[in-house]
Automatic annotation (TrEMBL):
Residues 25-316 form the Plant heme peroxidase family profile domain. PROSITE patterns: PEROXIDASE_1, PEROXIDASE_4. This is Peroxidase. The keyword Oxidoreductase applies. Ca(2+) 2 binds at residues 192, 241, 246.
Length: 316
């Protein structure tokens, strides 16, 4: 993600909701007959938006993760709050999620080309693949046929993985979504695109017992995020090639330069360390595994009895 604001979230996941791995039948060719131009419309929309705003790829990839981890991949994150309900996008971990307008723009064009055919959840899944590929990462066939959910609750966003979490908590969170240890390490590589505000990692800099962080790196972060920082835009890129999807994220973790405590923790745990090492040494392997894990993530909580929203921000 080229530039993305990642706000502070609760330090511990107090509630871990089970999001079932879907048995719904998805198909890479789902729209071949009903809307053959769907993927082209989505790609062109995202490419144009990314040229105008380089932060778009990072934001859309993060949007897909945050949607799928709450209620599954049902586009519930895209729904606006209503007078009687505060929606996911207004939950604390999501207040910094941006670029919803890009998905809305793609959906508007799809409604003109193929009315009531392409779900918002499929638009988001395709968009996540496209932003990775456009950032020189892997490409994969997106399985399609998701339906959009009708429920979105801000208080459920406490179940999102936290940048303060230890590896055990992360493993448990991913397992409840049908994702294993390898998926955890692989999907964490999405941080190769991204930017974080100080609030998501500054606590590490004041913790003298945290020996996992490289001392020179910690010093550079302290300069950007002083103890009484007043600059809301201050922060750090999550790797040194923030606009390019590559394996630099893993290389930096092996050097003690993971920005988030949750990232660096992957290298301090025997269950995940060897996977980090393998990706740091072999970018091709990381790309192959990332594509596979993204397909797997896209199957989480897919619903069969939802709807095809005409507008992604409101239910029909």
């Amino acid at each position: 993600m080229s530039k993305i604001t990642i706000s502070a979230v609760v330090a511990f996941l107090l509630i871990l909701a089970v999001v079932p791995f879907s048995r719904a039948a998805l198909n890479a060719h789902y729209y071949d007959q009903t809307c053959p131009q769907a993927e082209s419309i989505i790609f062109q929309t995202i490419r144009n938006a990314s040229i105008y705003d380089p932060k778009v790829p990072a934001r859309l990839l993060r949007m897909f993760f945050h949607d799928c981890f709450i209620r599954g991949c049902d586009a519930s994150l895209l729904l606006d709050s209503t007078p009687g309900n505060k929606a996911e996008k207004d939950g604390p971990p999501n207040v910094s999620v941006r670029s919803f307008y890009v998905i809305d723009d793609a959906k508007t064009k799809l409604e003109k080309a193929c009315p009531r055919t392409v779900s918002c959840s499929d638009v988001l899944a395709i968009a996540a693949r496209d932003v990775v590929a456009m950032s020189r990462g892997p490409w994969w066939h997106v399985l399609k046929g998701r339906k959009d959910g009708r429920v979105s609750k801000a208080n459920e966003t406490i179940n999102l993985p936290s940048p303060f979490s230890n590896t055990t908590t992360l493993i448990q969170s991913f397992a409840k979504r049908g994702l294993n240890v390898k998926d955890l390490v692989t999907l964490s590589g999405g941080h190769t695109l991204g930017f974080s505000h100080c609030s998501s990692f500054s606590a590490r800099l004041q913790n003298s017992t945290d020996t996992s962080i490289n001392s020179e790196f910690a010093m550079s972060l302290r300069k950007k995020c002083p103890l009484h920082n007043k600059d809301r835009n201050a922060g750090e890129f999550l790797d040194s090639t923030s606009a390019k999807f590559d394996n630099d994220y893993y290389k930096r973790i092996t050097m003690g330069k993971g920005v988030f405590g949750s990232d660096q923790a992957l290298y301090g745990d025997d269950r995940t360390k060897s996977i980090v090492d393998s990706y740091a040494k072999d970018e091709k392997r990381f790309f192959t595994e990332f594509a596979a894990s993204m397909v797997k993530l896209g199957n989480v909580g897919v619903i069969e009895d939802g709807e095809i929203r005409v507008k992604c921000s409101i239910v029909n």
